[in-house]
Each structure stands twice: as C-alpha cells, then as structure tokens.
Amino acid sequence: MRKTRNGNKRSQTPLVHVYGCQCSLCVPMPGRDDPIVRLMPEDPEMLEGKPDPRLALNYDDRFSSILGTGVSRRDLLRVGSLAALGSLLPTAATFAQEKKFDPVVKIGYIPITDAAALLVAHEMGMFKKHGIESAPPTLIRGWSPLVEAFASHRFNLAHMLIPIPIWMRYNNKFPIKVTAWNHTNGSGIVVHRDAGINTPKDLGGKQFAVPFWYSIHNIISQKIMRDAGITPVIRPQDAKLAPNECNLIVLQPPDMPPALAAKSIHGYCVAEPFNALGEMRANGKMLRMTGDVWKGHPCCVVVMHEADTMDPARAQWAQSVHNAIVEAQIHLFENREAMADMLSKDGKNYLPFPKEVVRRAMMLYQIPYPGNPDAIKNKDWGADRINFQGWPYRSATELVVSDLKSTVITGDAAFLDKLEPKFVADDLVNYAFIRNALERNPKWKNDRSVPATGDPFTRKEVISL
Amino acid sequence: MRGSVNWVAGMAIFFALWWLGGYFIAANAKTASFSGFGLLPTLAAFPELWQAGKLQSAILASGERLGSGLGIAIVIGLPVGILVGRSKLFRDLSNSGFQFIRMISPLSWMPIAVLVFSSWDGSIVFLVAIAAVWPVIFATAAGLAKVDPAWFKVARNLGANPVQMLTQIIMPAIAFDIFTGIRLALGVAWVVLVPAELLGVTSGLGYSIKDARETLSYDHLTAMVLTIGIIGYFLDTVCVMLIRRYSWHWSGA
Amino acid sequence: MSNNAAVAAAAPAASRFAGFSYNASTFVAGLAILFGLWWLSTWALSLNPATSRFASFGPGPAFEATWAMIEKGQVQKAIWASSYRLGAGLLIAIAAGVPIGILIGRSRWFRELSNSPFQLMRMISPLSWEPIAVIVFAGWNSAIIFLVAIAAVWPIMFATAAGLAKVDPAWFKVARNLGASSRQIVTEIIIPAIAFDVLTGVRLALGVAWMVLVPAEFLGVRSGLGYSIEDARESLEYDHLMAMLLVIGTMGYALDSACLALIRRYSWHKQ
For B38-251, which CATH class? Predict the structure, then answer.
C-alpha cells in the first residue's frame, strides 16, 4: 500500500472517496486520474477520519475559492505594496502627456471609408510634402477607445462623428476643436429586401439599428422617420410597438448585416462599407442615401486638441496638416478607384475589406439606383456615394446642434437644452487653418455641395426628405 | 466582532486608496477630464442613477439575462455532468469534444449568436450559458466521482429504482460540488455578461457601461462597474453559504 | 527462450500501447462526433434560404480557410502575437498573485483586511477595466496585457492561499526548530507544498485569460487571434471566422493539456 505523507497506512473504508483514497474499493478503480475529475483537486492529505478542511465549518469560507480555505497564522508579514502601487498608477504618467509638443502626426482611425482622407494624406505622402512627419495611422475598433486614446493624447489627429466633439466639449469640458470636415455623405439606409419596406413610412412597427446614438446616422434616420410620420422610440425588442413607431437599437456595424439576414432588425443606417456589405452579402437593399436627403451633410469631422490650434508656435504645423488634408481630399475626388484599391485589403490593408466592397462603397451611385430607383431622388444634386469636402459650414453645425435636441437617445442630454447652435458654430469649430488650405486649393469647389455662385464658404442647408 | 471590524477596515483602506488616486487624477490638469473615475464623483453618481431609475432597470435586465443563462447552464450541465460521472464510455468519448469547445472564448461565438437567434436577449443568454455550462458539468462529474460506489450496490440491493437512486443518493451526495460548480459558473457568467450586452440591447448593466463610456461620463461608468462588483460579491457570498450548508459536516456525524 | 523473454518484456509495453491506443481512439472519436454535429447544424442552416449565405460557417469551408491561412502565414503570426500577450499577462498575474496569495495564507490580519476589497474587485468584469487600460497605458500591447493580467490574477491568488492553507502548520514549527531562515521556509517548504495548487490556479487563470484575450485584442493592435476574428467578422468572411475559432479552440486545448500535465507532475500522488 502507498504511504501517505505522514507514513500512516489507510485501512478502513471511508464514506467519501477523495482523490488519493487508498481503500480497497478505490485502488482497483482506474478513473481517478481523469482530467475531468482533476479539474477539481482534492486535498491529498485526507487521512482516515480527518475531515476535509474545505468542508469543515470552522474554516474561513469567506474568500475560499473551490480549492480550499485559509488557516489562521499569527505571523505579521509586511503588507504588499500592490495596493499602494495601484493608487500611484494614474500619476505614474504612463499615458502620453504633452510635456513637449511632438510634431509627428499620430492618427487614429476607425476602419470605415470615412477615414479615407487622413489615410490618403499619410499614404500618398502629402504630410511629407508639407514637411510634416506622420506615424502610420492606428486602427481602432470602436469610437470609445478612439475617444479615450485621443483624450489621453495618444493621437493628435483623428476623425470623429460630428456629435462626439459636441459632447466632449460641452458635456465633459474637454478642450477639443473641430478643424475641418473629413468627408460628407457616405451613409445610407439599408433594409431587408423581403421586409416589405419601400418607403420610410413602412418602417412603422419595425426594428432599426444605428451604430452610435451620437452620430449623424441617428440624426438623419430620425429626421426621415419623423417626416414620414413615424415616431422613433427606444424599447426592449419584444415590447409592443404602435404601427407608427419604430424601435431603435445600437449595434456595432459588423453585426448589422448578419442581424439583417437573421431578421433581428429590419433596417439600419450606417457608414460605408457596411451598406455595401449589406447589399452584397445580406440580402439588403438601399432604401435611401443620406447624401440624397441632406445635401452635402457632414458625417465625420477632423478633430485636434485645442492647444494645438491655439498655440502660435504650432500654427505653422497645424496649417501644413490641413494643407495636406485638403490635397488628400481633392486627390480622392479625382482618383476614386485607385484610392479605393489602395485602401482595401488587396492594397495597403487600411480597410480590411476586399476591393470590390470598397469600390462599391466609394463609387456606386448609379442613377437610377440598381435595386431601388427611389434610393436616389435628387438626381441633380450631383452628389456621390461619398464626398470629400472639407469646409465646415456654420449652417450645418447649427442644424446638427438643433437636431440633436430632438433626437431620441438614452444618454443624459440635459446640457443640450442650454446649448445655442450659433454659439457652438463659433466656439467648437476653428476655421482659420482649413480656410487657408482651401484658398490655396481652388479645386475643392468642384464638389457639388459647395455653392457655385456667391460666397463658397456659406450656404443654406438643403433637405429633401 | 473582530471579523467585521477588519471587514470595515479593509473596505475603508480600499476606498481611501481609491480616493487618493482620484485626487491625483483631478489635480493633474492633463487628466482632469477623467476625474469621473475618482471615488467621490462615483459615489455622487449613485443617487443620480437611482433617481433616474437607471440603476434598477439595468440590474433587473441584466439579472434576467444572467439568471436565464445560468438556469440553462444548470439544466443542461447537471444531467450531462451526471452522465459524464456515471458512464465511462460517455466520458471518454465526449472528453475531447468538450475540452475543445470549452477553450473557445465565448465571445467568439457572438457572430454565430447574432445569426442564429432572432432575439437579442436570446443571443446574450446563449453566450452566458455557453460560458457557464462547463464548470457545472465538470463539478457535477467530480462530485459524482467522490460518491462511494458501494452505496449504489446497497441501494440496488434494497430495491431502489433509478429515480430513487437519483434523488436519494446522487443528489444529496453531490450537492456540495454542484454548488461549487455554480459558484464558478457565476463568476464566469459575470465576466461574459458585460461584453455580451454589446449586442443590440438597450438595457442592462453592460449596456449602461457602454453608454456611459460613449458619453465620457466616467462617474456613471465607475458607478455601474461598482454595482456589478457589489452584486457579484453578494451572489458569491450566497453561493458560499449554500456550499457551507450542504457540506458533509452538516449532514455527517 | 528469447521468445518468452521478448513476450514477457512486450507484455507491459503491450498493455501500455493498448491503453494509449484506447485514449487516442476515443480522442479522435470524440472530435469526430463534434465535427459531425457541426456539419449537421450548418447543413440545417443552409436549408433556410434567408440564412443560406452564411453556410460558410460549415466545417468544409473552415478547414479550407484554415489551410489557406496557414499557407499565408497568418495563423502563425496571430498565434505568436496572442501567445506573447497571454504569456506576459499570465506571468504578471503569477508574479503578483503568488506572493499576495502567500501573504493571504500566512497572515490572518492581512487576509481579513484585504478580503472584501479583493472579492469586490474580483467580481468586476475584466473588460470593464478597458477605459482605464486605454487611458493609463501608453502602448496598446501593454493595455491588453494589463487586461489579461487583471483577469488572471484572482484565481492564482486564491489558489495559492488555499494551497498554503493545506500545509501542515507543524512543518513550520519543525523547520524553525531546525533553524531554517525565512527564505528557506519559503523555498523549501512553501513553494513545493503549494506547487500543485498554484498550478491548478494557473489552469483556471488560463481559462479566464483566454476568454478575455479575444475581446481585449479589439484595442488598437493589428495582430493576434482576437484581431483576426474581428477582421473576419467585419468583412463577413465566416469561413475565416470559423477557421480562427478552430485555431483558438485547438490552441486553448493544447495549453490546458499542458497545464494538466504539469499539475499531474506536481501532484502528491507521485510521492
């Protein structure tokens, strides 16, 4: 017989056969070594009659995991410094602080076609041409990590959905400035082909997804719904909906096409290329292009830290950055297909999609639109699936702010009530750099959402629902 | 008495360190926008969230999903665990398959969950269940392995039918291990619940954390995170009490 | 004569071989059953016209995609990157968890003080630490490693403490009587005694860390298994997704078995 640690031999038959039991019933049983059984280790020290320490009541169970309990010891050891270290961590300043101005442009982006201008500016060497060094852009999945990384100064240039800087500046008092528009249009509403939705009115009683509450997609979708007499609501999926109510949920863009295919949602509004993906792979059809509803609407904006825009010593740097961005936007306008291929997985893999998807996302704007001629009603607007126009029109900013006040969301939006649209247009946006850059590059006026006559820097917003 | 004094002292030290960290964050101009992480803003957020009813509805919604997921895990895990414990053939055949699926991170199932379930709650419950079922299965099997096989012989000699064997012998014998397995499953389920609630729902603790994060309301975020910690702690303590109650020490001599 | 000797020598070897082939055949049979069920369910999915496009979830496309990705070297790169983060996170968790666990096991004062805060922090979903990780850590790798470590430290800590609890207190007295220094107590008594439990804790920690690694890798990195899954998910390439799931499952299984082998080696049974 095997000896136990203390050298005693086991002789009687215990009631509970723990691991290492040496009684006559156990020794011939080969199953004790099973990996499954071994997931729950036993106390090997089980002597006959001595209770399993895990089972005894007088042991301290409060922290015990499945593996055992504590035994009281009298020794006083020095308390580990881990807790103290934890409190010091924020001041250990491991996140990038602005000790010294770093002229290298660090870009953060989300892998959607919205990011194209910044990516092209880096890849095609436009930053370099203006004497600016730029680090390879960092792909971030999700707006929240991008915002956090930007806020901790890990990036000094990023693109964000236009409501996000509004939130950051006025709700959280973060010193952020919008310095240009990254692109316009580039979004659409996709619905399931067999859901019987041919006009926005048919969205009543259905489930609809947006990527983010604080997005132009949410704003425009709700605009379209209200105009068609539908009330957007936010309720649990199985709640009863009146025939004129449409239930909104937030989904990550990659989940939208499969959810559409599985009929968990009946439609969604999101940035490209997920509309293209929905059309190509999830039995979806384009209901309406957002650029066909609001002419030249902003979607993503270029943001910078306020210090970078206000410091006179950095003004030259900021100006060069914007020169590069505008040149990238014009380049995109003129070389769509080549740039689509470059950005795709078959190119430099900035956007991890095959080139057919990116091409469709950036270029397909046939009139009449295949699959649904009503997707594009305003043929004379001359818009495109996505446009790269950089001037941040005041009128658009004001309209976004006033629309936000009536947009249904779940966050706490009390600060919006006190927000004056005109004030935001003056305070949030920095017009200096982008204006200079545009004046150097007159080709920007080729974009059809820019007024052809009169002052190109002011326009009236045109909405056609 | 001494135990509760130390309990209070421990929490007090914890809060003090937290407050210290928050103080440094707020004092530093560069990080002041993240001051919501500190102790005082977080505590201040609780009454706000309670007033707005957000705390209650989030706890209820998440609790439902967690409960359903755990319930399914137990309902599936117990019989399978008993099978694993009793039948060597089943155990040997299923071992490799189970171990393989067990090691696939539950959140990798998300795209499949979206596709298969047309209800968001269903997908979330599925993710929770698929994460929680393994500890239950293996704990049950381990518990069964500890049961003296002689008892089965005796019971059969005394004329017990399979049902009676199940209820009078197997269940009481393995109750301890089952509750230990449930405790583990609970821990895993909490880990999975927060990212699982990214799927299309607009209620629940995980969703509220996401919402707070997106609006940079870090005080709300930390309040919700603390709520999860507290609830988890409470449920874990309940499990420990159940384990203690069903330990052999109670039913033994 | 030599025949008999050969037979006699072969007998134990034969029984070992029989045992091994039984294990091997049930291993294979188990996996075969699993894949059979998988094939069946995707076949059922392909019958429904609406979801038939997603039939690329099946085992056939998955294996093809796995092979294609191995050829392109994507699988190896992803495994390497993820292993680095997992390993670093686990090492940190062990380096932090074992000493604290020993402290908890040895000092009642520390244990009672730290119990409630640790329990509270333990129940916080590791991914809720994400905003803090992003803000505090300058590098994305470090943020991910932090998330892995903070998920993995709790099982190791408590397993170490539990292991220490099983150590016979008499040993400490004897050791001290024989003039052992504190350091010797730690290396000669505590560590060998708790090796089994620590390794079990590591195995549990591995399970949790593996679970956390995939969503943690959504943060700003362009390599790793989690990144590849998200990539496949975004472009709706479900065969690649299932291929990555296969890789993750296999790798997880291998790591878990390695832990198990270590545990077996350090179990008391050997004595």
Answer: mainly alpha
Q: Residue C121 burial by CB count (10 A; 0-12/13-18/19+): exposed, middle or buried? A: middle
Q: Is the pLDDT of residue A132 over 60?
A: yes
Decide if pLDDT at A248 tops 70: yes
Q: How far apart are CA A396 and CA A425, in angstroms?
A: 9
In terms of Cα–Cα distance, which of C50, B31, B13, C271 is closest to A79? B13
With a cut of 80, say whether residue A445 has pLDDT above it: yes
**Residue A152 touches partner C, C-beta closer than 8 Å:** yes
Among A156-170, A376-390, B22-36, name the one with the lowest average pLDDT.
B22-36
CB contact under 8 A, A265 and B111: no
Asked if the C-beta of B179 comes within 8 angstroms of chain A's C-beta atoms, the answer is no
Task: Examine residue A53 and say whether the peptide bond preceding it is cis (omega within 30 degrees of 0).
Answer: no
C78 Cα to chain A: minimum distance (Å):
16
List, in order, residues 6 or more apart from A130 with CB less than 8 Å away: A320, A321, A323, A324
* SS3 state at A66: coil
How far does B116 lie from chain C, in Å, by closest CA? 9
Conformational region of residue A205, where left means phi above 0, alpha means psi within -120 to 50, and beta covers everything else = left
Q: Mind listing the pLDDT tens digit for each residue in C161-189?
A: 888 877 777 777 887 788 877 777 767 77
ipTM: 0.80
- Closest partner CB to C134 (pick from A33, A149, A254): A149
Q: Are C164 and C105 contacting, i.e. CB atoms less than 8 angstroms apart?
A: yes
A157 forms beta bridges with A107
Taking the CA of residue B250 and the nearest CA in chain C, the distance in Å comes to 21
Dist. CA C173–CA C168, nearest whole Å: 10
Q: Check if A20 contacts C (Cβ < 8 Å).
A: yes
Q: Tell me if C253 and B99 make a contact (CB, 8 A cut-off).
A: yes
Cβ A179 vs Cβ A437: under 8 Å: no
Percent of chain C with pLDDT over 90: 10
Q: Which of B96, B115, B226 sits opposite C27 (nearest CB)?
A: B96
Residue C123 contacts A where some CB pair is shorter than 8 Å: no
Query: Contact C128/B209, CB-based, under 8 Å?
Result: yes
B232 touches chain C (CB under 8 A): yes
- Evaluate if residue A92 carries a pLDDT over 60: no
CB-neighbour burial class of residue A346 (10 A; exposed 0-12, middle 13-18, buried 19+): middle
pLDDT digits (tens, 9 = 90+) for A188-201: 999 998 888 888 88
Cα angle for residues A344, A348, A349 (degrees, 5° grid) = 50
Q: Is the pLDDT of residue B129 over 90?
A: yes
Q: Using a CB-CB distance cutoff of 8 angstroms, which residues of chain A are in contact with residue B210?
A: 144
Q: Using CB atoms, pick whichever of C166, C218, C263 lies closest to residue A141.
A: C218
Contact C249 B115 (CB under 8 A): no
Could you state, in order of their start, the residue ranges of all structural domains in chain B?
1-35, 38-251
